[in-house]
């Protein structure tokens, strides 16, 4: 479906733009520290490379929020690199180098030694030869104590739906014309088989459900997720073995909820895990219990690195933090005297982990249970890893430029929801269309923010929906917009201000 240089990877359709927080140096450092390992300190100068960066959103945002880092990002699609450079220029980023390179070509690139190397999803979509190029690049360039982030489609979670992908890919390969049309035809063909009562779908309801999800996605997304020539599903043990050949050891998941078994493993299954001491087989068993279809793993090269005292910040408004949460393991109830104490403390300002563990409510539980309570809140995305205050002014200047560029894109109709850069988190925070337009109104000094938002929406022919009903009148929309702005100002804006996203 593409040229020899691309090695079967789709290049004729651009991939969708997206932000992935797991790629961030602060989160990756925290993931290693949570495993008791040293890591590169993202508060100090570092070097970073993203392989297969797509439209470059994640690298650009992290570069804006961490201007003291030196970032490199590579993709073989010329359109992706053009778009990434344009975003970088509009945001005034001077610490990113965009490289239009294949993995093989990067082996000869004049790169510095690296603290972080990241790949989002692409490991499942490249050939065995290109995976060897990745391993060789890691061997040559990753510093001792450096981290690699690797996400990929995993077994056994993908087992039931894998034949569906093969069916669609084979159908598309037999067609003619542009890939976008062949993708639509392939999805339609699979749907016709399901509707005709094909037993595969009857016996694999997960595949039927996935097909419904696929039908709602754009061809730009599907082309890269399902229609590359190479498409490999991995057991964790096999990826760990490939990384071990490159000199790396497993440091844990960058999806921080996975670090807390009370959130992900049903109580009835925990005794089975208790007797497993081999870390690789333990991960395999966990994947069988959870049906994990997509892993987000962190690997580390052995080497002496200090373990900084990580900082944590509130990322959900305190009043919006629930007392009870539905999680993969079942129903999780917060303990007010423990979890509530941490949330109340962080509602004031970010705190080092050591300070949280010293709170009487946590200290009396012992280090292990106290740390588990903090990690639970991290896993639920109520709090998150952050940066020390040192260097904040420089980070704030950089994120202001980036966020202004993203809000301008949103106002121009190029984006709906956008991720803005936080100089406190060193990562991104999502704001929806109304929130973003409100921030633009305040930035521009609009006397009537509701009118500002309405003028933008009306110019696009958009209307708000309330209680399942579209508001058609201008007066009705203005009233609803004003109410939502008031709720935003009284709630989430307070957290955004604390995180340096809004001023």
User: Over the alpha carbons, how many angstroms does the gyration radius reach?
Assistant: 23 Å
| Distance between the ends | 48 Å
What's the main sheet like?
7 strands, mixed
Spatial ordering of strands, largest sheet:
3-2-1-4-5-7-6
Secondary-structure content class: alpha/beta
CATH fold group of the largest domain: Rossmann fold
Number of DSSP strand runs: 16
CATH class of the largest domain: Alpha Beta
Strand content is 15-25%
GO molecular function, one term: methyltransferase activity
Keywords: Methyltransferase, Transferase
Domain Methyltransferase: 49-146
InterPro entries: Methyltransf_25 (IPR041698), MeTrfase_reg_dom_prd (IPR018773), SAM-dependent_MTases_sf (IPR029063)
Task: Characterize the structure shown.
One of its GO terms (molecular function) is methyltransferase activity. Keywords: Methyltransferase, Transferase. Residues 219-301 form the Methyltransferase regulatory domain. It comes from Skermanella cutis. The structure is a single chain. This protein is an alpha/beta fold and 503 residues long. The chain has 4 domains: 21-155 and 233-300, Vaccinia Virus protein VP39 (Rossmann fold); 162-226, no CATH class; 311-386, no CATH class; 412-498, no CATH class. It has helices at residues 25-34, 57-65, 78-90, 103-106, 128-141, 162-174, 179-195, 199-203, 205-215, 219-226, 236-245, 261-264, 270-274, 279-290, 336-346, 353-357, 360-363, 367-379, 392-411, 433-443, 449-459, 474-490, 492-498, and strands at residues 47-51, 70-75, 96-100, 114-119, 142-153, 249-253, 294-300, 311-314, 324-327, 330-333, 351-352, 383-386, 418-422, 427-431, 465-466, 469-470. Strands 3-2-1-4-5-7-6 form a 7-stranded mixed β-sheet. The protein has a 3-stranded antiparallel β-sheet with strand order 11-8-12. Helix 2 runs antiparallel to helix 19, helix 19 crosses helix 20 and helix 21 packs across helix 22. It is globular. The protein starts with 24 loop residues before the first helix and ends in a 5-residue tail after the last helix.
